[in-house]
Every structure is written in C-alpha cells, then in structure tokens.
Amino acid sequence: MLLEKNDIDPGRADKKGQTPFSWAAGNGKKGIVQLLLERNDIDPHRADWDGRTPFSFAAGSGREGIVALLLERNDIDPDRADSDARTPLLWAAKNGCEATVRILIARKDVNPDRADYYGRTPFYWAAGNGHRKIVELLLERTDVNPDRADSDGRTPISWAADYGHEVIVKMLLDRNDINPDRADDYGRTLFSLAVERGHVHVVKLLEERRNLIVKSTAMDESSKAIARGLPQPSERPFKRVRLF
C-alpha cells in the first residue's frame, strides 16, 4: 500500500491546497476517509487556498455519512467559514443537500442564518436555487430571517422570482414577514425581474396577488364606510344637476 511507503506524504496538498483527505471527503469515499483518520500525520481540518475544509466539501456535496463521521471528532469546526464567509451549512443549502442541512441545523454550534461575504444566507441560496424542501426546513426556525437582504438590497424572494421558482415565490408571498414590494439597490422589484426574465407563471402569480390586495382594500373601505354610517362607494347618491 502507498500509505506504508516512507517516501509518500499522505497530507501533501495540490496546487489548490486540497489534500488527499479533502478529495476523499468531498467525493464520498468513506472507507478512505476512515483509513486516513487512523493516521496521526493527517490534518482533517486543513483548509485549501479558498479556505474550504474537508468538512465543507463533504457538506457541500451531500456526503452526510462523512459529515456525521467527522462530527464525532473534537477537532472539527462545523461552522467554519471559507474565504468568502461561506459555511458548510451554506454550501449544503446552496447545493440542495437536504439530509446534510438537517444534520447541521440540529446543532447548537451552527448558525443557520450566517451570511457570506455578499450578505447571502443559507436560506437565501436555497430560495434562489429552488430547493423547496430546504426552504421549508429553514422557515420552521425562529432564528432565520426569510426577508434578509444581501449587499445589493436583494432578498430571497427576489432571487426566487428572478430565477422563476414559482412554488417558492408563492410560499413566501403567503407569509406576513415578507415584503414583496421591496426594490433592490438598483430599483428592481419582484415584478420587474420576473417580467425581464420572461417567467410568465411568476408574473401571473404576482398579478393575482395585486388584484387580491386591490379587492381587499376596496372591501376594507366599504366596511369602514358602514361603520361610520356613510353610504358605500357603490351606494353614494348621484349629484342633482339643474337642467335650467
């Protein structure tokens, strides 16, 4: 075996700073990961030039078996961010790795709402990439802000609308803690983004919402008029016009 040779360095990194252990973890080679973990000359938490650790690669590629294995150790930081401030949870949410997300959000040492360098959280990435199950998981929590804007003033629902994720847009429109009329730093709204991208179903969804709001507002005005004892808009008397 190569590991038995004295002239082989099992911890040597490539030009990107990734070690054999990092590659094994990211590609789901659990047997090799276990084999390398038995050695004392392997650093299982060594980051590459982008600041990503083997745990980050395992989480971001949905290798939940390796994620669980590494979490049993004391020398693994499950919330360590890379050079773009992206955590293992963010990578898992971004790439749609639901099982890994479940593992990580159950831990107290993982911040589920931690943003990256651009102000984008795990929820933001999940919504923007159309990962409905992960969006639902994160919405169940009280420590996740589903309307948090990034450095460009764009919110998760903005990204979902931009990429035509109708189901997620509808899910967020049904909530009371989302501002669907908020424009980003460039003045773009959900509606303008959906129109620009040609997402017909999202445009129709937003139009239906607008019509409901208009109808609801009219009904509210009518109710207020009744409460004040005034004639409703449709019942207001015509002005008498003198003909002579």
UniProtKB/TrEMBL annotation:
Q: Which InterPro entries match?
A: Ankyrin_rpt, Ankyrin_rpt-contain_sf
Record's PROSITE patterns?
ANK_REP_REGION (PS50297), ANK_REPEAT (PS50088)
Which keywords appear in this protein's UniProt record, sorted alphabetically?
A: ANK repeat, Repeat
Please name the Pfam families in this protein's record. Ank_2, Ank_3, Ank_4
Signal peptide range: none
User: This protein's superkingdom?
Assistant: Eukaryota
**What Gene3D superfamilies does this protein map onto?**
Ankyrin repeat-containing domain (1.25.40.20)
Repeat (ANK) positions are 118-141, 152-176
Which parts of this chain are annotated as the region Disordered?
Answer: 1-25
Give TM regions. none
UniProt cross-references to SMART domains, sorted A to Z = ANK
Mark out the compositionally biased spans (Basic and acidic residues). 1-17
Q: Looking at the keywords, is Repeat present?
A: yes
Q: Which PANTHER family match?
A: ANKYRIN REPEAT AND PROTEIN KINASE DOMAIN-CONTAINING PROTEIN, ANKYRIN REPEAT-CONTAINING PROTEIN-RELATED
The protein in question is named: Ankyrin
